[in-house]
Amino acid sequence: MDMQRSDLDNHRRILGIGFIAINALTVLAGIVLAIFFAFGGLMMVSEEAQARDRVAYFLIGGGLSACVLAFGLPGVIAGIGLLKRRRWSRVLALVLGIIGLFNFPLGTCLGIYAIWFYAQEGSDRVLAS
What we know:
single chain; mainly alpha
C-alpha cells in the first residue's frame, strides 16, 4: 500500500515529536539524578563521611547521571533532525527505534512506530524535500 506523501510527512513529524518527548523524559531523569546526587553529597557533612567517601559518592552519581543523559540525548537529536528533515536523522531514528524496542513500554511503542514508518514505500523521499 503506497501512502500519500502528505500522510508520510505527518508521520515523520509525529515520529520526530515522539522521539523528542520520550527522550526528553530520559534527559530530565538524568538531570534530576545529577541534582539528587549533588545535594546528597553536600549533605554528607558528618565526621563519619570522609573526603574519599564524598568523592566516591560524587563520581558514582556523576557516572550514573552521565549514562542516563547519554541514553536520552541521541533520541532528542534524532527527533530534532526528523522535524528539520535532515537526511542523517533517518538512520539515527531507525537505529534508536530498534534499540528502543527493549525499553518497555514507551520505547517499544516508539520503536515499532519507527520501524513501521521506515518500512513504508516513499518514507525515504519525505526527508529529501
